[in-house]
Fold this protein.
Amino acid sequence: MDHDHQELPSDPALRVMALESLLVEKGLVDPAALEELIDTYEHKVGPRNGARVVARAWLDPAFKQRLLADASSAVAELGYVGQGREHLVVLENTPERHNLVVCTLCSCYPWPVLGLPPVWYKSSPYRSRAVIDPRGVLREFGLEIGENVEIRVWDSTSEMRYLVLPERPAGTEGMNEDELAELVTRDAMIGTAKVTLEETPR
Amino acid sequence: MNGVHDMGGMHGMGPIVPESEEPVFHEPWEARVFALYRATSSLGRWNIDAARHARERIPPADYLRMSYYEKWLAGLITMLEESGLVTRAEVENGRRAPEIPKAIPPLRAEQVAALVAERGWFERPVNGLPRFAVGEAVRVKKINQTGHTRLPRYARGNVGVVDRVHGAHVFPDSNAHFRGESPQYLYSVRFSARELWGESASSRDAVYIDLWEDYLEPA
């Protein structure tokens, strides 16, 4: 342990509690604002937002066109919580092309449409290997991508955020927007899964 | 900086372990760190690039060992100390030093919705046109700077093709060190997997990397 920090408790829970009480005592933090922030990201912002974007794009070709041309403006039409002006690019999967999103340098992720990222997305194994071995990474997720399909990996090195528009599965022709949105998983919008009729949403 | 955070292309990090029914936060303290970071960032004493650089400066062995929110905690303490909002002594004692005045109004609960909605907009107006056009071949410069950069090592020296021009964006290499936003054009550059990784890579696959104009030269 760093000598300078020897007196600090090693348990992060205790350290955070001490830091919070210091910041509150100094008037730098209002506990009510902390509760509001936590509630927002635990309950209001999440992949259901992105799923609505995808479902709308599947049903409305004009919306899809606007989404692919300028996602930042197009998602503003949907009006969900946590939405604001964000640099967003939507990447369309097709039978010939599969998109996969990563941030090799840290953990950049489209919060307004997907919420906070899962642990594996922020982990060293995913960050290191997604760019050099995307097919191996996808196989670890149970996804085999044919040799005739192009894989495009998007390394989120700037403030641009990337969201995958998965392919709409066959057998969903009669479904409405809500039913379609239920099928769309977080992983499908990162690019580590496809949308299927069977899968439980993750 | 050529830090351990710059992981693209490394081997030996182990399997990817997805978790089913994953909670947003695994422990209450993780949620507190997240909220403390968002609340204090809103005070405007640092920027997102400086905060990233604070996490990159965690010693490499610690960086690899720490969990995600442990890194956030370490980075938050660095930013609080370097911005002068708290002193090292205060962090160590957990008590406000009496001679240090209480600060600025904190973020209020009723301001949270607006904060969450404003994730940030980093495009800036600039004079002049982009140096490179869509479809143009560009080579990534070999830059090894000790400060903050968003140029990953695995891209350096390689040739790609400009796929999109994102407009002029805040330049992290400058902004992280409080030397100004210095906006410049940002490009999405397509690199074939073989250009980056050699003949064993798929001939079909590609990696797209967002790169600022200063990182690039004509190929």
Notes: Chain B has two domains: 28-117, 137-218. Strands of chain B lie at 137-140, 159-169, 184-192, 206-212, 216-218.
